[in-house]
C-alpha cells in the first residue's frame, strides 16, 4: 500500500507538470490558430478526443470508474462536416463554439449520405498517433451512416479493457464510484468529473442529441470540442494537481488508481495525448490526411463538402 501511495504521488506530480504545460500553452495560443489562415480544404477534420491516445486515456479512466458508462463511448469516428469544421475553427470570439441550431443541418445531411468513408481511412497526423498495437483499439472510421454516434457496447468495452491490461481488481466498486461522483450539490471537482463523463459518452441511447463520434458536446445550445477552452474535459486535467488524489484517498481507491497507471499504458497515452492536444489547440480539431486523392480533391474528406475560401 505504501509503495502504491508513493508511486501515485510521483505519477500525479508528472501529470501536473505535463497537463499544466498544456493548459498554459493553450492560454498563450488562444487566437493563434485562426491567425494561421483558413482550414486546409484537403483534410478530414476530426475532434481531437477521437485521436487514439486521447480516446484511450479517457476510456481507461471511464472504465476504471464504471464499465457501464465506458460502454457509451463512441464505437466509430466520423469527420466533421466541412461547414462545422470551418465554423469551429474560426469562432475565436465565441470560444470555438457554434450554434447547434445552425450546424444541425450539416450533421443531418451526413447522417443520410450513403457510403461512409468508402473503405478509405483518413490517417491521423503524427502528433496524434500511438503504437499501432494500441491504435487499433481506438474507433475506426465509420462506413455506414447508422454507425455515426453508435456506442461501443459493454462487450466491446470489456474486450478493449482486457487488452489494455485492466482487471476486475482495478475497477471501482459501486460504493467507491458513488463516493467519487457524489450527488448534487457536488463540489467543483466532482462536478467536473460528472460533466466530463457525460460529454465523452453522448452516444445514441444515452442522450437526445448524440455527438460522440465527432468528439463534440453541447454547451448552452452551442456545439464545441470536448477539449475546447474551458470545456469540462479540459478542466479535468487540473484535477491531477491534487483533487483526484484527495478523492481517491477519501473514497478508498488510491491503490486502484495507482494500479491503473502501473499496469496499463496510461502514462504512454498521456504523453502522446498531450502532444496531440497541444498541436491542435485551441479549437481542438485535428486535420487528418485525406485518403486516396489527397490534395487533388477533398470529396473523400467529408460527406458535407465546403471549399475553403
From TrEMBL:
**Transmembrane stretches, start-end:** 47-65
- On the tree of life, the source organism's domain of life is Bacteria
Keyword annotations for this protein, in alphabetical order, are: Membrane, Transmembrane, Transmembrane helix
**Name of the protein described by the UniProt record:** Uncharacterized protein
Gene source species: Paraburkholderia elongata
Amino acid at each position: 500500500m505504501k509503495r502504491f501511495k508513493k508511486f501515485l504521488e510521483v505519477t500525479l506530480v508528472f501529470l501536473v507538470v505535463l497537463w499544466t504545460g498544456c493548459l498554459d500553452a493553450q492560454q498563450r495560443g488562444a487566437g493563434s490558430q485562426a491567425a494561421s489562415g483558413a482550414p486546409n480544404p484537403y483534410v478530414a477534420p476530426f475532434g481531437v478526443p477521437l485521436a487514439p491516445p486521447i480516446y484511450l486515456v479517457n476510456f481507461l479512466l471511464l472504465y476504471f470508474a464504471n464499465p457501464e458508462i465506458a460502454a457509451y463511448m463512441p464505437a466509430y469516428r466520423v469527420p466533421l462536416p466541412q461547414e462545422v469544421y470551418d465554423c469551429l475553427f474560426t469562432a475565436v470570439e465565441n470560444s470555438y463554439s457554434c450554434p447547434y441550431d445552425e450546424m444541425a443541418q450539416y450533421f443531418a445531411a451526413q447522417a443520410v449520405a450513403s457510403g461512409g468513408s468508402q473503405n478509405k481511412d483518413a490517417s491521423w497526423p503524427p502528433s496524434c498517433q500511438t503504437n499501432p498495437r494500441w491504435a487499433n483499439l481506438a474507433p475506426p472510421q465509420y462506413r455506414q451512416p447508422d454507425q455515426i454516434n453508435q456506442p461501443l457496447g459493454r462487450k466491446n468495452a470489456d474486450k478493449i479493457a482486457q487488452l489494455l491490461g485492466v482487471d476486475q481488481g482495478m475497477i471501482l466498486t459501486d460504493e467507491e464510484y458513488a463516493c467519487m461522483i457524489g450527488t448534487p450539490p457536488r463540489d467543483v471537482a466532482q462536478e467536473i468529473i460528472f460533466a466530463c463523463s457525460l460529454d465523452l459518452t453522448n452516444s445514441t441511447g444515452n442522450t437526445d442529441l448524440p455527438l460522440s463520434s465527432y468528439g463534440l458536446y453541447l454547451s448552452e445550445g452551442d456545439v464545441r470540442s470536448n477539449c475546447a477552452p474551458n470545456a469540462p474535459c479540459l478542466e479535468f486535467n487540473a484535477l491531477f494537481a491534487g483533487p483526484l488524489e484527495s478523492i481517491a484517498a477519501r473514497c478508498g481507491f488510491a491503490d486502484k488508481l495507482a494500479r491503473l497507471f502501473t499496469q496499463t499504458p496510461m502514462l504512454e497515452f498521456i504523453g502522446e495525448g498531450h502532444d496531440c492536444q497541444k498541436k491542435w489547440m485551441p479549437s481542438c480539431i485535428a486535420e487528418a490526411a485525406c485518403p486516396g486523392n489527397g490534395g487533388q480533391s477533398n470529396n473523400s474528406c467529408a460527406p458535407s463538402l465546403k471549399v475553403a475560401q
